[in-house]
From TrEMBL:
InterPro entries: DinB-like (IPR024775), DinB/YfiT-like (IPR034660). This is DinB-like domain-containing protein. SUPFAM superfamilies: DinB/YfiT-like putative metalloenzymes. Residues 15-150 form the DinB-like domain.
Length: 156
């Protein structure tokens, strides 16, 4: 029987692969161009940041692509330089997404049942936190949402 950790790891790998496939179709020249509000580079860095926060529980002070930059909690998480910016170029941005995505998949595959329990920081929840397993599941759908945003942006 497949564990919830294996199920999540496999589904994250599948969704991140699909997201990467869409990003790979975008030219270097337009990768940093805003379409419908954000560039494909921004979407990639956004997902990398949310993977760090939601899946890996990384509370480093170098977040800049959470999409809530006008909120106090997001400003408090972005006091250091971002590990990568949209201006870094397509290859570097995709390498960042790939590296963080792989860390998330490895973490999920090796997570204990205890790691998947309890509450976790979730700024969109009314109380600012939600059950960890629900947060990880919600974020998986979030990756799919941004994959769709990138596709729509290319049609604009």
């Amino acid at each position: 029987m497949t564990s919830i950790q294996e199920f999540l790891a496999d589904n994250y790998r599948t969704e991140l692969t699909a997201f990467r496939a869409v990003l790979d179709t975008i030219s270097e020249e337009t990768f940093g161009t805003d379409r419908l509000g954000h560039s494909p580079a921004w979407h990639a860095l956004h997902i990398a940041d949310w993977l760090r926060l939601t899946v890996l529980g990384d509370r480093a002070a170098n977040y800049h692509y959470l999409g809530w930059e006008d909120k106090d909690w997001a400003q408090a998480m972005g006091t250091e330089a971002a590990p990568m910016t949209e201006a870094g170029g397509k290859a570097a941005v995709l390498a960042r997404l790939e590296a963080v995505g792989e860390q998330a998949v490895v973490y999920l595959r090796g997570a204990s049942d205890t790691d998947m329990q309890g509450m976790t920081f979730s700024p969109s929840a009314p109380t600012g936190e939600r059950p960890r397993l629900a947060a990880v599941g919600l974020h998986l759908r979030h990756v799919a949402y941004h994959r769709g945003q990138v596709v729509l942006g290319q049609k604009a």
